Amino acid sequence: MYGAIIGDVAGSYLEILEVRAKKNGTKRIYQERVKILDESTKLFDENCFYTDDSILTVAVADAALHGRNYKEKIIEYAKREMQKQNPNPEGNFGFKDKFGAGFQEWVKTGVGGNSYGNGCAMRISAIGNLFDDSDDVIKQARLATVCSHNHPESIICSQAVALSVYFLRNGFTKWEIERYLKQRFDFDFSYYSLEKLRHNNIFSSRAMITVPQAIFCFLESHDFVSCIRNALSIGGDTDTIACISGGLAEVYYGIPKNLIKEVDTYIPEYFKPIINEFYQKYQKQVIY
Fold first, then answer.
1. Which one, 47, 53, 278, 284, has the greatest CB density within 10 A?
2. Is 95 a residue whose pLDDT tops 50?
3. How far apart are the first and last CA of the chain?
């Protein structure tokens, strides 16, 4: 779970820059994006914060750990954050407005939920860790998705992420993951290039665009930190791409201990009992 949260927090402010560029009819330039590849560039700074990706990752884990309804837990966590005062002058990127307008409306009314966005896949990694049968992973990933994202693309992408986590924790190689996702979901990573994405990627929150990008960033990495840097360097929806990549990288590589200590300073205290319970149940937190 920390892998997803680290990716989210590290990508939070970069996403603001990506959105600003899109609103101006352009994209962040290559030279700005690739600065994160410099090992002297810190993943976290004073501009970083936790977003809806972390909030809902913990919510889904909470529901799965306690056998609770996913929709109820997601709404519970979202309302808690939506009620907080917004301290951020950027408006849409403060505590109160960490959620998109459509999601906020769904939280308030419980009506709708036909989104094809990536808000489902960003929160799903715990499912791949907490269930011990691939059929259960498929079922639970769908249940944790359809309450707010019942579009077929969203369901496919959530299941792809959750199954990737599940198979990685059961010893699959990257090549086996790539082959499986191609056969089952028609994800073809041969079309991707990190360099081309760094030059050309534009912001999108569509699941079918961002989820394959996130998985590709993991496939092209050599350790946890390189995975997060890959994800941040391609631009676009950086917090969500890095959140998904980080969830995969944690299972495959483990996480540097210093990053766990750092990200703990960014997240609220109410997350931490669920995170601790998750690792007690999962019985694996590889740090180095």
1. 53
2. no
3. 16
Q: What is the pLDDT of residue 288?
A: 65
Angle 81-119-251 (CA atoms, 0-180°, nearest 5)? Answer: 100
**Rounded average pLDDT over 79-103:** 65
* Higher local confidence (pLDDT), 72 or 90: 72
pLDDT tens digits, one per residue of 244-273 = 999 999 999 999 999 999 999 999 999 999
pLDDT the model gives residue 91 = 47
Residue 279 makes CB contacts below 8 A (sequence gap 6+) with: 1, 285
Which whole-number Å values give the CA distances from 163 to 55, 202, 265, in the listed order? 21, 27, 30
Structure tokens at 21: 């560029």
Distance, in Å, from the CA atom of 7 to the CA atom of 240, rounded to the nearest integer, reads 8
